[in-house]
Structures are given as C-alpha cells and as structure tokens.
Amino acid sequence: MSTSIDHPVAERSFDRRPRSTLQRFGPLLVALLALGLVACAVTIWRSLRLATTAAGAPPSVIEVAAAPVAVETLPQWLRATGTLQAVQEVVLAPEVAGRVMAIRFEAGAVVAEGDALVQLFDGIERADRAAALARARFARHQLDRSRELSPSGTESLQRLQQRESELHEAEAAVAQIEARLAQKTVRAPFDGRLGIRRINLGQYVSAGEPIATLVALDRLYVIFTVPQQDLGRLRVGGEVEVASDAWPDRRFRAVINAIEPRIGTDTRNVSVQAILSDPEGLLRPGLFVTVGVAQAPRPDAILVPTTAIQATASGDSVLVVRDGRAVPTPVVAGPQIGNRTVVERGLVAGDVVISGGQLRIRPGATVAVAAAGAGPRRPEP
C-alpha cells in the first residue's frame, strides 16, 4: 500500500526560481517613459506660447548714438615730409694759423654781424703796421716838399712823380699789413646764434680749424619732395603749412620759392624748397617736418565721425538710420581730419549714421536716435 508523502523542502526550492528582467524593471521603465512624454508636452506648449506672444508684440527698440552727415567746404592740402635747412649757416674758422689770445663769445649766444669772436696773436702784424705807417708819413712829407719846390723848378717833374709813387707804395704796404691783421680776428659774418665752442684760450689753431657754428634762425628752408604726378599741383608762391613734433600744437607758414626743374631719376620725385619765417627762433635746421601744400578748397565735402566707419575685409561701411532701422551701407573712406573722416562715396546730405556701438546692432534692427548728451541704451531682455 503506497503512502503519499509531501516534500515541503522541494516545494520551496521550486518557488525560488529567478524572475525575468522585464518583470523586475518593467514598471520603472513605464514610469520613466510617462515622465518623458509629460516633459516634452510641457516644452512644446511653452514654445508655442512664447512664439505666439513674440508674434503679437512689437520688436524691441535699441537706442543709439547717431550723427547727421556734415556737408561743408573742406580745405585741401598736398601732404609730404621734409626737413629744415638754414638759409644762412657757417662753420667759423680762422683764415690763418695762430695762438688764441682772446675768446669773446659764449656758447649758444646770439651775436650781431661784425662782432669780434676770437682774437689770435697779432703782435708781429701790429709792429709791421706801425713801421709801414711811419714810412707812409715820411713819403707824404717828401711828396708835399716836392710839390712846393716843383713850380719854381727846384724839383724836377720826374722827382715829383717819384715822390708820388713812393707814397702810393707806402700806403699799399699799410693796407696789406692791415689786411693780415684783420685775418687775426674772427668776426660774425651775419646775425645769428652760435653753437658749441670748439677751442680754448691759448690753443694754437690752424687755418680752417672749426671754432663754432653760426646759424641764422629767423629764416629757414623747408626742403621736401612730392611724387611726379603732383607736379601740376605746385607753384612758386604757393602757401605751405609746416608742422613738427617739437611743437605739436603749432603750425608754421612757409612760401614755395623754388621747384627743382629736374625730376629725380631714382625716385621720380620733385624736390621743392620753401622759405619759412621764424622770428621767435623756435625751429632748428635738421628737424624732420610734415608739410601741407595748400590746394583749392573742396566744396560739399561729406564728413562723418571716424567712429562711425567699420573696417571689414570686404571694405568700409557705416550703419545709416533709415525709417527707424539700421541699414548697412558700403562707403569709400577718404582722409581723416581730426576726429572726423571724409567719405568719398556712399553717403548723401541728410543721412544719419550711427557713431558708436555698431557691433551690438544687427543689420535691420529697429533703432531710435538718442537725445543729445544721452548715451546709447541696451534693449531690455
């Protein structure tokens, strides 16, 4: 007789079989998918709402600083670079050798024409002159005596002529010695300013040895060159404006007095010389200067603030305010004058250009010109 026996251990082992991955994570995946769908729905709803609001709202207005185009008569100049030269300049030197006995000037002093500057030893020449003067006086006495005796026949006419010749020879000897004596004194040949002294008291100097430089500073030459194509823009008597970095706030006036008749074969430039009057003696020979030759004024020149021009790889442009919008406009920029620039092409009278902050303004953006004295204002977010 068989007896049925339950095995609880075996039943429990059967209940512990592992569950599948889908059974364990299925509810979690369903929950995550539901959350993702909700988030997508919310995002799409917000985007549609913002788009609807933006379509119905007016565009934001950017307040900008702008300036109207200036149309005026513009003086024109032919620009060049040059240098200054002295009209009168000389290196003082003795004509003969000798020992320096006196120095009668200070370095940098202003002297007048004829002033004695250096005295060389002239004792021998003074003694020779004294002897020559004595001979000349004796020859004159002899001539006077012959003139008294000649009418009575005591002195012959030949003797009288001999006495006259002797007097002339004696006077010529005096003049010759006085000329040698004058060579012992170095004098200023013209009014001017002296340079640095190059000799000392008691020094023996040779003929032609430099003593000092003398320069007349009241009048200077302005030497400059221009390209050959500008030859027709030059004329003798034309006005020249001269500027130097030694006096950045001053402008000096000169007048063209000579134009080189020959073009330089190596540079194809024309050399020009102008005379500059400088009674104050502010400038110096050798200074580098910038030169502007006056030309006929240019009528109806268009000028804009330099900050209004944007330089790009494709060329210069400005933002013009037209119908309340910023319109990019290509231009051809000319020379800069102070803080303004000449516009050769691209603008007309009446245009208003944005003068600052162009980088934050998109082409076609709606803008409003700020009141005078008010800066540009960023748009509200």
Indicate the topology.
Blueprint: H1 8-15, H2 21-56, E1 62-64, E2 66-68, E3 70-86, E4 89-92, E5 98-103, E6 110-111, E7 116-120, H3 123-149, H4 157-182, E8 185-187, E9 192-194, E10 204-205, E11 212-215, E12 219-227, E13 239-244, E14 247-259, E15 269-277, E16 288-305, E17 310-312, E18 315-322, E19 325-330, E20 332-337, E21 340-345, E22 352-354, E23 367-369
Helix pairs in contact: 3-4
What letter string, H or E per element, gives the SSE order? Answer: HHEEEEEEEHHEEEEEEEEEEEEEEEE
**CATH homologous superfamily of the largest domain?**
Efflux pump adaptor protein, beta barrel domain
* CATH class call of the largest domain: Mainly Beta
How many separate domains?
4
Number of helices: 4
Report the strand count: 23
Structural class: alpha+beta
Structure description:
- The protein is built from 4 helices and 23 strands.
- It has 381 residues and is of the alpha+beta class.
- The protein folds into 4 domains: 62-74 and 299-369, conserved putative lor/sdh protein from methanococcus maripaludis s2 fold; 78-87 and 215-298, Beta Barrel (Elongation Factor Tu (Ef-tu), domain 3); 88-118 and 185-214, OB fold (Dihydrolipoamide Acetyltransferase, E2P) (Beta Barrel), CATH 2.40.50; 122-183, Helix Hairpins (Orthogonal Bundle).
- The strands form 6 sheets. A 6-stranded antiparallel β-barrel has the order 3-12-15-14-13-16.
- A hairpin with a 2-residue loop joins strand 20 and strand 21 (340-345).
- Helix 3 (123-149) runs antiparallel to helix 4.
- The radius of gyration is 50 Å and the shape is elongated.
- The two termini are 95 Å apart.
- Pfam families: Beta-barrel_RND_2, BSH_RND, RND-MFP_C.
- Residues 160-187 form a coiled coil.
- One of its GO terms (molecular function) is efflux transmembrane transporter activity.
- Belongs to the membrane fusion protein (MFP) (TC 8.A.1) family.
- Keywords: Coiled coil, Membrane, Transmembrane, Transmembrane helix, Transport.
